[in-house]
Amino acid sequence: MDDFILETQHLTREFKGFVAVDDVNLKVRRGSIHALIGPNGAGKTTVFNLLTKFLPVTSGKIFYKGRDITTLQAAQVARDGLVRSFQISAVFPHLSVLENVRVGLQRSLGTSFHFWRSEASLNALNERAMDLLRQVDLADFAQSVTVELPYGRKRALEIATTLALDPELMLLDEPTQGMGHEDVSRVVDLIRRVAANRTVLMVEHNMNVVADLSDTITVLARGSVLAEGPYAQVSKDPRVLEAYVGTVEA
Q1: How many domains does the chain have?
Q2: Using an 8 Å Cβ cutoff, are 61 and 67 in contact?
Q3: Which of 54, 110, 135, 206 has a 20 to 30 Å separation from 125 between CA atoms?
Q4: pTM to 2 decimal places
Q5: Judgement on whether residues 49 and 7 belong to the same structural domain of the protein
Q6: Can you give the pLDDT at residue 132?
């Protein structure tokens, strides 16, 4: 298990008799970029919600860094370095770009929910916040109001706020959803850079992105694992092609 930062055993989630995630066995190798793909309704986001404790499991186990986290709360696993982003941008629109990152960094001061703290007390975080913004090519936007950012830049900011929590394992939910080609290229490059010293598990529909970034791909269909392996292998699997009704290129 030491080679794997995350493992699920027979992970299952039912909703009033409907099995959304069915006996999923998943292993995510340390230092890798692992993609979770599948048609709409395959159970990908439900798996993310189970891994990050936004939903309780019906049965099965989740291990993170060799420890059983099945019954832990979301805040507990986040504090231990398992941090996710969301399909819908989850930033504070009327704060500046710098202030958004600083909110994530407040945890290191023990003042995460002390929004009345003086400006001076938070300025100690500015250097680290700017460093994170440079990592995601947003340093020039530090003083911009977040709501004014282009969509692709907002997604980059969300990755910066995720990095502010110092994750060992980043779960990225549709990081390039709704982006044009230029923004997709920028975010792909960004994910590759931030994955240099951590593990990334991502849900992604764009197969070009999956092919470009992923070391391992797990394909879900109807809540179950359909296939797993590198892109060259998975993309030629007849079961995968059938599940996608021709939308995955061989």
Answers
A1: 2
A2: no
A3: 54
A4: 0.87
A5: yes
A6: 93
